[in-house]
Amino acid sequence: MAREILHGVAVSAGISIGKAFFINRQSRRHIPRETIPASKVDYEIDRLTAASNMVRDEFEAARAKVPEELREHGAIIDSHLMICQDPKLMLAAATRIRDRGITAEWALEQSVETIAAAFSAIDDPYIRERIQDVRVVAERIMQRLLGGADTSRALEERMVLMAHDLTPADTIELEQDKIMSFTTCEGGKTSHTGILARSLQIPAIVGVEGLEECVRDGELVIVDALRGRILIDPTEDELADYSDLKYQFENYQKSIIHQCKLPGETVDGFRLDIQANIELADELQSVLDNGGEGVGLYRTEYAFLNRKKAPTEEELYREYATLAERLAPAKVTLRTLDVGADKMMNTQEKLEEANPALGLRGIRYCLKNLDLFRMQLRAILRASVHGNVAVMFPMISGIKEVRQARYQLNLVRQELDEAGIPYNPNMPVGIMIELPSAVMISETLAQEVDFFSIGTNDLIQYSLGIDRANKHVSYLYQPLHPAIVRSIKYVVDAAHRAGIEVSVCGEVASDPYCIPILMGMQIDAVSIAPQAIPGIKRIIRQVNMEECKQLLRDVLSHATVSKINRKVRQTIFKRFPEELTFFASLLDQDD
Amino acid sequence: MRNTITEHEDCFAAIILVQNELGLHARPAARIAQEAQKFRCELRLVVEDQEVDAKSILDILSLAAVRGTEITLKGWGDDARQALEHMADTLHRTLGEGA
Hints:
Chain A is an alpha/beta fold. Chain A is built from 24 helices and 16 strands. In chain A, helix 15 (399-419) links the parallel strand 12 (388-393) and strand 13.
């Protein structure tokens, strides 16, 4: 076993093996939190100014070197340039040195904390998180004050770069072709480091606890950004295994990308539509690049969140029409506004709900806010003439909601008829099946709509009565719980008896272990994250329907989740030893 | 679009509506502070009861101005008129529709 194994969030897939190179270390240093005599005030202020000027010069130098393909990072460096000379940070720190008679380091630290306190009160999470930018910039100034300047150390050979946190300036200053991968203590799924690593196509893991304490410079490490693990001082055996895995993964990556434009068809000719879940029109390119055959779930919330007033019908119409045009003849399925629970609009009245997940959300919210709902429906109907558009309603719990929603849709159609505005009268209308009640009445619901989309993430939580984000019960998030498998099958069968299509959206559909089981039920389509499409397609293209049906029968014959998971893991692993080495599965949590 | 700059007893002012999707996020904030620093006069941004220094990116960000917010830009001092024209233009370019 390696001396130590650390865990973090893998934000760019891959494996690298090499020597650790640490920059921006934060531990093992001493910030002088001291008072100074009045005679030294000017000296301290000069030190502070010199440090911030030094950082400004470094940022400017880095800015000038940003290659065209990393323009995004140039913009981030621009904002860091402004922060390092900002009066709220630097002038405030200088004033503190003078008024309180303290060291430059301590004054800087206090200024950052004051800004952090002000930012933490901001509602908008995007702006609130910008405090991270203030911290990395201040950290750099702090290092200059303390006399450290290790970012300028030249990389002599290819290294595994490790840092407390990385700024785009840090990475630009280093020679990129010598960086094998990034590993940082800070950061989460959306941090700059991940974006940068993906554009450079190198592995990255962020949010690694204990990194600074455990890794010594120059030490041999394995960065496993497939599973989010870092092995420090690995054994010979581990090195051999990981070298093989790295080689296989790189070949595998090449081959799946190469094949992702082929249809999602089994060896015996059963075709599954493989669509993408997205929430921004900007993501369309990634859908097409990864071989997506349409958008099975367009989350329309984005245009409504983080803004003062609701969007106008015109704005929504333009958004949906562009999407439809760019995808045509492929389909785009627009899900109507699904707010409430964790996603609230600024314009929305904040309700006192003891259980928001069981509260006014999804279609319930829309049916209580008819003006808003009808406005969105008008935009969708108008966009329907620009391509292959379908609409679906979220959080349906019974027949009445479907009829009420369809009634509103008909009213809007009449309005459009009267105004002589064109729309597609045959636009398919579907519903999300994500509540246990909808599962049980799916037979009847199928008579009312043109298609079903099974939202497994919510269905699992509502069926098993657990909140996946709650760490005390998250172990019960069991996608192959017999109740879940039976529910999905029940809905698929009901849809097919009524002659309507059924698709599955939700993480289960992008899990390499679960997809053959869903195939065995003969679902018509899946809708998954764009990045998951190539891998899932590759599995589908290697199975035949008979083995999928057999696996489903096996799953249905077991009574416990652990037996089911074991069976599925064994079967799939034997069948796809190559690909499944590279992926974590939803089933891994259970044992 | 032509910006309307109004002259008041003690200052020049212009009103800008935030129309871009992300609102007043880091990139426009950096640009605004950068441009504002080119002028000697005092420049301030006002949103409802909040008033901040247009030369400080951190101040600007703290407005957390989302799409649909109305921002008043104010300037005092020697080059205020010229600054207002330039800044109103910058704000339109960074926060206007399609920015």
